[in-house]
């Protein structure tokens, strides 16, 4: 049992590192090689979706088509793909393109904040005190990240902030939408088809776009984003859930923005200030607070 837990810890940390590194690779191909954002989003969805479906089909054969035999589930899949999968991938890459990988990754961590607000409105209940504390800390972190501590000026480009906040909203919808699908089908099947369907709107862009620079570095970066930052990261995260609780995996997912920040600063020379570091830590802290076991969190009065 102890070995299994150690293995799970290694898997979830490795997955977070790969996810964070993929953001840095995306920043590099956007800024240094002018790879179009929409094109890379479509390629990632298409290739990662195909890989996940091939992975599932290798062990289950024709069962890879099972989801399409249930019309009600097909509607759920289309909803998840077009309102969850595509926006979460596209807004994250746009936030990186207009800003940088550390900021985009941290703003994406605002997802739990939007989930809290949605659930409070949907159930018409006042958030728990721990939720209100999370909201307050997240807002403080966002303020520091966006203004660098100066109330009268923005340290972050407005478009980077806009897409970063949408990435947070999209990550919340990505979490909430596929629940019924994941209860009925293997996650590889659900996410693989959602990615493949989500790549269809990018078909014209994939065919007609001429890349300004194609060399080994660009190809290697894109391959890492698809295989390492999507395929392997997803596999490691799934495997970690076999020996770890969701709260533990939620807390250790903080390795994603940590990795994106360290790599962007050291490899790409992305500047970062003390206020931005504190702001990012505040936002990450909201995820850690939400990962606390419910029995130790005070109930709302």
Main sheet overview: none
Q: What's the total count of β strands? A: 0
Query: How large, in whole angstroms, is the Cα Rg?
Result: 19 Å
- Uncertain runs: 295-301
Number of helices: 14
Q: Helix amount, in percent?
A: over 70%
Q: In what range is the share of β-strand residues?
A: under 5%
End-to-end separation: 39 Å
Number of folding domains?
1
Structural class, please? mainly alpha
Provide mean pLDDT, rounded: 85
- Given the C-alpha coordinates, what overall shape results? globular
- What's the assembly state of these chains? single chain
Q: How do the helices and strands follow one another from N- to C-terminus? A: HHHHHHHHHHHHHH
Membrane topology: Multi-pass membrane protein
Protein name: Peptide ABC transporter ATP-binding protein
Organism: Levilactobacillus spicheri
Family: Belongs to the EamA transporter family.
